[in-house]
Design a protein that fits this description.
Length: 138
Amino acid sequence: MEAFFTFIGAHPLLVGAFVVLLGLFIRNESGRGGATITTQELVRLVNVQNALVLDVRDKAEFAEGHIVDAVNIPYASLEEKWSELSKHKERPIVVACKMGQHSGTAGTLLKKNGFANVSRLMGGYSEWRAQNLPVVKS
């Protein structure tokens, strides 16, 4: 650990450049999959703008509980099922997964395929449950 601090002290320009590049990388990657929205913003989008909630968890997790009126297309088969989503291209789409780990990549895929208004649910379905919001079990 002492060598680490010695390196930082000896190479402040390298360390500074690394921190700046890391920050820019994180900012760029977080914006690619769409804006991140809270559970309250999701409720407003669904009620006011008729947003579609796209749940990319697998079918077993979806059956255990999901957001009301959510459409389930597992992340692994998302690219195969564009036809199911193509009729919703003009609607706002909010991508939700278990904890937010797949929603960014799914959002990027949607944007690449012509979906303009894509957002991601911050914290995913876990955050939805933590806020005690209504769920449907199928």
